[in-house]
Specification:
The chain is mostly beta strands and about 210 residues long. It has helices at about 20-25, 70-75, 90-95, 105-110, and strands spanning about 30, 30-35, 40-45, 50-55, 60-65, 80-85, 115, 125, 130-145, 150-165, 170, 175, 185, 190. A seven-stranded antiparallel sheet has the order 3-2-6-9-10-5-4, covered by helices on one side. Strand 4 and strand 5 form a beta hairpin. The protein is globular and about 55 Å long. The two termini are about 30 Å apart.
């Protein structure tokens, strides 16, 4: 790294107008997570820390700053559902980010139609072109390098069912760009999507 780089230790602050961490680790897929409580209350919330972590079995996970309803429900019922956020669904996704009481149904708040999952007892976003039904596999409270607990929980789940809209498949291949996936950026209101023009191919080199 060049000597004129900006260096900081996070514990001492970044000395910049805006924390660059979220902007550097970006764009990130949005974890639009639907869950249901033990008493039947439905929850739908977006998480900016979300990704896939394994092929076989397929595992996805989201990280929650605080032990929120999504975490509580995923722990108590052992189920959660991931719904792909596309550009046409961005405004509705944003509506579900509002902090409300556990008994408030965010599907109704954002005027979203519920879809029926096949394996888990959790509703999905009917208009989302991709839905992944998940069984909770691990939940862990994140810790610092010193072993101190953070008020953040990572929820991992095995994907046990995948719904893909036919419009998302081109000759049997999933068309990422055509679905206009929305991803979280670093600013307070910044998001990205992708286009076919941005795609390039880079094949992994073969060993001798």
């Amino acid at each position: 790294m060049a000597d004129n780089s900006h260096f900081y230790e996070p514990k001492n602050g970044h000395q910049l107008p805006h924390d660059p961490f979220n902007a550097i680790i970006a764009p990130r897929p949005i974890g639009w997570i639907s869950t249901k409580s033990k008493t039947g209350a439905v929850n739908l919330a977006p998480y900016s820390f979300f990704n896939a972590f394994n092929y076989s079995p397929p595992i996805v996970g989201f990280s929650s700053l605080g032990y929120k309803d999504s975490v509580k429900n995923a722990v108590e019922t052992g189920e959660f559902c991931w719904n792909l956020v596309t550009k046409p669904l961005a405004e509705a996704m944003n509506q579900t980010s509002v902090a409300v009481d556990p008994d408030v149904d965010e599907f109704e708040l954002a005027q979203l139609t519920k879809g029926q999952c096949k394996i888990i007892d959790v509703p999905n976003v009917a208009k989302s072109p991709v839905v992944m039904e998940c069984k909770t596999s691990q939940v862990m409270q994140l810790k610092s390098a010193k072993g101190e607990n953070s008020q953040t929980w990572l929820v991992l789940g095995e994907v046990v069912g995948v719904h893909i809209a036919q419009k998302a498949l081109k000759d049997g291949i999933y068309d990422t760009a055509a679905m206009e996936p929305v991803m979280r950026a670093g600013g307070a209101a910044d998001y990205f999507t992708v286009s076919e023009e941005q795609k390039f191919e880079l094949f992994r080199p073969k060993s001798n």
